[in-house]
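Standup notes
- HV: blocked on the assembly model, inputs below
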Amino acid sequence: MRWTGLAVSCAVLAVAAVLSIAIGAQTIPLGELWRELWHPAGGETAAIIHDLRIPRTLLGVCVGAALGLAGALMQALTRNPLADPGLLGVNSGASLAVVCSILFFGVTDVRTWVWFSLVGAALATVAVYALGATGRGAANPARLVLAGTAVSAALIAVINGVLTLDSGVFDQWRFWDVGALAGRDADVVRQIAPFVAVGAVLALTLGRGLNAVALGEQTGQGLGVSLARVRLTGATAIMLLCGAATAAAGPIGFIGLMAPHAVRAFTGPDHRWVLVYSAVLAPALLLTADVVGRVVVRPGELESGIVTAFIGAPVFIYLLRRRKVART
Amino acid sequence: MSAHRTLSTPSRRISLRVHLRSAAVVAVLLAAALAVGLAAMGTGSAISVGDVVGTLLGQGDATSEMVVYELRAPRVLLALLVGAALGVGGAVVQSLTRNPLGSPDVIGVNAGAAAGAVLMILVVGTTDAPTLAAGALACGLAAALGVYALSFRRGVQGTRLVLVGIGVTAMLHSLIAYLLTRADLYESQGAKVWLIGSLAGTGWERVWPVAAAMLVLLPAAVALSRSLGPMEMGDDTAAALGLRVERRRLALLVVAVLLSGVAVSAAGPITFVALAAPQLARRLTRAPGAGVAAGAVTGALLLGAADLLAQRLPTPGQLPVGVLTGGLGGLYLAWLLHREWRSGRS
């Protein structure tokens, strides 16, 4: 049953990917798409497919999968259905790094922003984790959330301070902040792919450990799972996944929060399945949002970060109304 | 609240001591808030604190009367009122949800007000303060009502309310981000300053609505908050003590949302005061229940001090007060958590 569901999910993702390559300001018929895909004729259509649409679609798959996995991990680790991967300080750290790169180095190029925001996300996560791990005992989830809130508030204040005082920085930043897949080339995909790959492997190996943790800390330890190791690995994976996604596409909210909730309706509580399903369905949602964004305001485009929230939130609310929510 | 104390402390003498401490803390904080207000009125080059006191006592010249009554007093009053409203809203919601991170914006009122204000600034094209505040308030309340209605299904379950609130908030935030990218840079940055929360350029027309609302809402909050103590012990206990829990909860929620909506529509979604003020108040009074009065004076003091700092800091332009509340609040919370966790309390 779950395998069938997984196959269907993969098919949905494949359809979304094909649509994402075919549809845009210039829509390419499927027959022509198929020909150009394997035997590029070298014309304008080939250039659109190979230089623009395919990198963009690959980026969508990478970013979506990373956000879905990071969200599922975060909710499992904190045992809190409200936990968003951004809570560890990833988004605010990346955002501050981008603001600093514009302010001090005048960087306006997406590829350079990627490196800055990866470093910023990592530093912020380490700070949050260090604060959460103060004193005896492992960094417990409730502490991590509180520590993340405090650190993020301070970082966001610095960002806001710079943005109000310097309108040049604000003008660059506002386009990064909405979150988009457009305007990134294949290089950006190559930049983030290794981080996403390592993060995904770490995340997928954690399924069993997370299931044990979900039974309660003591039961988990009784089953031979090291809590401290699960938490540290989980936080590292979240940092890599969410950091890479935010670096490449800006802060695309909500997918990480929503995907695991939606997925649990099909998989039940087993974290191994929640992780796998999230990794497949979150990119499907992101690609769909991206395609819709290209269609609704032709010839312009709506950024996928915006469409994601506008498609995702109603679906999310519908799911919440339909089924009984687990009490926290 | 008194019930909570009598139950939690064995002897009457101790419960009396706690009560005295709360009252003393409230009095000290109130005095500090007023002192900060005076200092803020005397800040800048035109007149000193001494002149301000003289003017308030009716012995100032025309210039200092103009500066004090037309420029400084509205801003200081608005800071204190908005801070108090945020503090009370936060105290009530944190107590209701039994969650130290709770604040009224969980159910979408801040995001709604923010979206309303940004729509007014960027789409309607008005920067007139009362119109802006009215638009923000309407959208904030509409968002909160929408969240409540969407999560209503044979009663409102707490978790569902919060999750629906997050969904609606996400939509509103992306709407705001979209509007910011589509507008002209100058207007867009103006909207951003509003979104951070600023008290600059406050006139009396921004103060009166908040003052009037506080006059009604603050006594209501104090009266209703008496049932918060029993309710923190669980719905069943509270019901056994004779409270109609559901109705009380709704009434408290409405008051908290109105307070927060009024505050946000007047000064923008200032971060962290609603979250930090009740936490600080609890630590200062060492009282177990949600101290509405303590939350109010702590919030007023926090925002008043932050705004004084915003005016005094040697930055190239004046920082919006929200930057300071977020920055100082964040660092302070981090320090507080670090100290608490290092000493092994959790």
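- HV (later): unblocked. Residues 3 and 230 of chain B are 7 Å apart (CA to CA). Residues 1-9, 12-18 of chain B have pLDDT under 50 and may be disordered.
- Next: hand off to the docking folks.
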